[in-house]
# Entry
Amino acid sequence: MRQIIIPSASKHTIELPEFYYGKRVMITVSALGEKMNSFAKAEEARAFFNSIQVDMTNFKFDREEANER
# Structure
């Protein structure tokens, strides 16, 4: 069940269908504007990490050479 509301008072009651009576439920409340900002931050982080990727397709690791010290 998902419902978008605009509460008009400081106290608000959420009505659940009888299907949920006696069951454990999770209720999450967030402002839609704030949620959009978190998505924007995730996109910004993804863009940053995509910009510093290194192409290592031709990289070859030589264990013997690494252990020569």
